Amino acid sequence: MPTVHSATYDLLRRRGMTTVFGNPGSNELPFLKNFPGDFRYILGLHEGVVVGMADGFALASGAPALVNLHAAAGSGNAMGALTNAWYSHSPLVLTAGQQARSMIGVESMLANVDAPQLPRPLVKWSYEPSCPEDVPRALSQAIHTANLPARGPVYVSIPHDDWGHEVSEETALLSEREVTSAALPSDAQLRTLAERLNAARHPVLVLGPDVDAYGANGLAVALAERLNAPAWVAPSASRCPFPTRHACFRGVLPAAIQGISDRLAGHDLIVVIGAPVFRYHQYAPGRYLPEGAKLIHITCDMQEAARAPMGDALVGDIYAMLDQLVPHVRQSGRARPEPQAAPEPQVDPEGMLTPETVFDVMNAVAPEDAIYVKESTSTVTAFWERVEMRHPGSYFFPAAGGLGFGLPAAVGVQLACPERRVIGVIGDGSANYAITALWSAAQYRIPVVFVILKNGTYGALRWFSRLLNAEDAPGLDVPGLDFCALAKGYGVEAVAVSARHDFEAALQAALADDRPRVIEVSTTTIEP
Ligand SMILES: Cc1ncc(Cn2c(C)c(CCOP(=O)(O)OP(=O)(O)O)sc2=O)c(N)n1
Ligand SMILES: [Ca+2]
Hints:
With 528 residues, this protein is of the alpha/beta class. It folds into three domains: 4-175, Thiamin diphosphate (ThDP)-binding fold, Pyr/PP domains (Rossmann fold, 3-Layer(aba) Sandwich); 187-328, Rossmann fold, CATH 3.40.50.1220; 355-522, 3-Layer(aba) Sandwich (Rossmann fold), CATH 3.40.50. It contains 21 helices and 18 strands. The strands form three sheets. A six-stranded parallel sheet has the order 2-1-3-4-6-5. It has a six-stranded parallel sheet with strand order 9-8-7-10-11-12. Strand 13 (371-375), helix 16 and strand 14 (395-396) form a beta-alpha-beta unit. Helix 1 runs parallel beside helix 7, helix 3 (47-61) crosses helix 17 (406-416) and helix 15 packs parallel to helix 21. The chain is globular, with a radius of gyration of 24 Å. The N and C termini lie far apart (61 Å). Bound molecules: the ligand Cc1ncc(Cn2c(C)c(CCOP(=O)(O)OP(=O)(O)O)sc2=O)c(N)n1 and calcium ion. Calcium ion (CA) is lined by residues 427-429, 455, 457-459. It comes from Chromohalobacter marismortui.
């Protein structure tokens, strides 16, 4: 007779979920025993690293990823990383070991009291099966829930004395299921949408992370070229949905209400695709829309559509909708937008580099299909201006701004995409939230190039402190960090540089290596 243990591994195998990201406790050992030879376990030394690696892996592979955490304390450590996974529509299946069923009520050690409540509201679904026999079905429901639109993380708490229980032969039916969605508007809805685009005098596209997640970058280019319209990236960009040297490309919108209206002034139709409307950040009240503008929102997420403060919305599969829409959009007679001018090189002060120079060198040296995992908050604008990104899946940034994403997500992305090189571009503040990811990179020989921009401060907070008139706030500097010593302590070779040619040589050497490397670059601080 099959058991909960054998049925679960059969189900995971059938779904291709044979990589387990985890950090174990005693509650997890009955799940991990007799670990099948065709599975691999990627250990993270902190649950924030575990979920960050799984998040990068799921976002880059486009498939659900399995996470196995320790009960309450482990799941609690993962909540920061879950904020990003929730907003990036990351299909993570989090499992957490629970105390034995008879020991939960007395709240013995390692009991996850009221377990399904713990990860909310950062999961689509959260559950603890009412009996051992229901565990395989619950995991099947978790996998399909994570993967159906809008995709997102789910959580299943499993008592450790369930794994040996026998289950019915019928459980095998779970592994045969195919559950897919085909959310397409009606022909009439698509034609109405096309007519609005064809009638617009000055349309503009605002493209978000779900264009990249659905692999619809090429369709976004086709739409922009049909319309001869400028294409902005939606604010707080967590992915790159459009080639950044295309003539229509205009950069990333500011994350401020009035700032967006100012940038889009003069357009009569704003078409937002694959992003919420909008992921504002700094509080800068103003008009939601420029004078005379209407907004249409195309999204895979009904919550995004429902909560927007203005405009019309259409919910469906981003790729399928654009694929059906583009042929109905007439070729515009407007002139194609002019490409943006390349930014001027910066002059570096003695003994350090400007982030702009770092990015100019990175753009010159890195492979054209490199993948960037970014988490240096004050250098985002300079990065998008100077580093060219052409292909889908080229950029990942924490979708909720929850730091501690960059280092582990870079490891997960590289694990998912061994054929491309991953470069982590991490601030010296952010690097500390999940620094133990370096250990996992070393242990599993995952050749990420970690570039740590060392400006000795929380640069973005310096800017915010001026905006919020709190310049005397304490705790905004991070002096005295030695990332070479830290990296070596976790088994990763590292070098510190402060001159252009040294950084260039170090980056070339790191890209030629099949082991992870850290490059600590002394940089100035720039105003975001
Ligand atoms: C988990 C967590 N803690 C604290 C913050 C607050 N925070 C912090 C601490 C920032 C500074 C990051 O500094 P950095 O060195 O990584 O990058 P820059 O110097 O380029 O800003 S930006 C920001 O929002 C956060 N976003 N997430
Ligand atoms: Ca910094």
